[in-house]
């Protein structure tokens, strides 16, 4: 086998190779869900990604005998490092053929890049912000991926262990079968919350999502998620980027906010219909014909699963049953729209409060994924 060469991506031809590598890695894999090519390209573009005002990113490609055999991105989130008082370089978007020489060379490239910038540890896979995909799949490789999480082959975690990486945290995901009626416990708690705290559900329209109310949702997220591993605040500019990215696929019916008597937002839940099968059919591209699959799914026939992207509760209202109002609102809507299942994004395994909220829905815990960490020693 030939020598592995690592190259920094610095032109459009190399970026195209970076974006397209997964097509070959996952050829014939029935569980992999591709990213939109444009989303990956935009991640590296300061004009499209204002998070790059607060972070550095560098893409790398691994070549063997002129053929691309792996990719990785190095990321330094300066805000996160300051908040958590650490000096970590993150790795993300990692893909590689099943050869330890390739994964070793890729990770060493990020370690070196990070060390040159004063970093002492490497962790990942993580993105720039929490809305980027994070966590390497370590179990349940025979389950369909989604647009909001990472899918990877079973050999990836084996490579990480062989290269001396250790578990930093694990995330779990929850999948539930949507009941025909709101469980009695949710209905009861929802009514109590309304009576005791003067809470009410408020639905948003697209204009409100694009305006001040969209910003309110994410300000609430900043407040609620502040103690969570690796989190760093989203600025108004970042929020605007996110809203512009997701507004084409958002159904306002699937977004629920809860307000108190003062009109203050105390809870927000953003959910979407799954696009897993749609992304597979489009192969991650909108043009020339990929958009047809999105139109069919978004306007004519939903997939059978809803993705719960975030549920944020104001810290002083946590543990008071506010989430029950969200479920009381969404379950009838899911049924009306034909959704049979709902799946959360990754949730930290030690976040008992978060995981326990699903008990009335007979949850299935699945898709364990891991953030790895290692001290940089060069």
How does this model look, in words?
The chain has 378 residues and is an alpha+beta fold. The chain has two domains: 173 residues, Gcn5-related N-acetyltransferase (GNAT) (Aminopeptidase); 161 residues, Gcn5-related N-acetyltransferase (GNAT) (Aminopeptidase). Helices cover 35% and strands 26% of the residues. It contains 13 helices and 14 strands. Strands 1, 2, 3, 4, 5, 6, 7, 8, 9, 10, 11, 12, 13 and 14 form a 14-stranded mixed sheet that branches. β2 and β3 form a beta hairpin. α6 packs across α12 and α10 packs antiparallel against α11. The radius of gyration is 21 Å and the shape is globular. The chain starts with a strand and ends with a strand. The mean pLDDT is 92.
What layout of secondary structure does this protein have?
Elements: E1 4-8, H1 12-25, H2 37-43, E2 55-64, E3 67-77, H3 78-84, E4 88-96, H4 100-115, E5 121-124, E6 136-137, H5 155-162, E7 166-177, H6 184-197, E8 200-202, H7 206-210, H8 212-225, H9 236-246, E9 255-259, E10 265-273, H10 276-282, H11 290-299, E11 305-313, H12 322-337, E12 341-344, E13 347-348, H13 352-356, E14 364-375
Parallel strand pairs: 4-5, 11-12
Antiparallel strand pairs: 1-2, 2-3, 3-4, 5-14, 6-14, 7-12, 7-13, 7-14, 8-9, 9-10, 10-11
List keywords for this structure.
single chain; 378 residues; alpha+beta; Aminopeptidase; 2 domains; 14-stranded mixed beta sheet; 13 helices; 14 strands; globular
């Amino acid at each position: 086998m030939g020598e592995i060469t690592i190259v920094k991506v610095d032109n459009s031809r190399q970026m195209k190779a970076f974006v397209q590598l997964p097509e070959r890695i996952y050829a014939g894999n029935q569980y992999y869900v591709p990213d939109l090519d444009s989303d990956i390209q935009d991640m590296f573009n300061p004009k499209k990604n204002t998070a790059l005002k607060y972070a550095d990113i560098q893409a790398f490609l691994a070549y063997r005998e002129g053929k691309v055999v792996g990719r990785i991105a190095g990321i330094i989130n300066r805000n996160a490092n300051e908040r958590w008082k650490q000096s970590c370089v993150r790795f993300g978007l990692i893909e590689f053929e099943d050869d330890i020489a390739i994964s070793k060379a890729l990770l060493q490239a990020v370690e070196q890049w990070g060390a040159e910038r004063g970093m002492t540890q490497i962790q990942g896979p993580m993105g720039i912000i929490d809305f980027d995909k994070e966590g390497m799949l370590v179990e349940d490789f025979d389950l369909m991926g989604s647009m909001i999480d990472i899918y990877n082959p079973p050999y990836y975690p084996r490579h990480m262990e062989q290269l001396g990486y250790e578990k930093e945290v694990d995330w779990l995901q929850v999948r539930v079968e949507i009941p025909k009626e709101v469980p009695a416990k949710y209905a009861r708690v929802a009514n109590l919350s309304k009576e005791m705290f003067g809470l009410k559900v408020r639905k948003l329209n697209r204009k409100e999502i694009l305006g001040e109310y969209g910003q309110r949702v994410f300000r609430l997220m900043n407040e609620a998620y502040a103690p969570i591993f690796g989190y760093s605040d989203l600025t108004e500019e970042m929020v605007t980027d996110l809203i512009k990215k997701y507004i084409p696929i958002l159904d306002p019916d699937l977004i629920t906010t809860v307000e108190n008597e003062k009109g203050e937002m105390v809870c927000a839940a953003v959910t979407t219909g799954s696009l897993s099968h749609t992304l597979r059919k489009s192969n991650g591209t909108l043009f020339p014909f990929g958009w047809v699959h999105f139109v069919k799914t978004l306007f004519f026939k939903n997939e059978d699963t809803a993705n719960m992207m975030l549920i944020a509760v104001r810290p002083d209202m946590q543990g008071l049953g506010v989430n029950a109002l969200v479920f009381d609102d969404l379950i009838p809507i899911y049924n009306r729209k034909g959704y049979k299942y709902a799946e959360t994004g990754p949730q930290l395994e030690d976040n008992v409060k978060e995981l326990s909220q699903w008990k009335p829905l007979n949850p299935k815990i699945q898709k364990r994924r891991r953030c790895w960490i290692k001290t940089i020693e060069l």
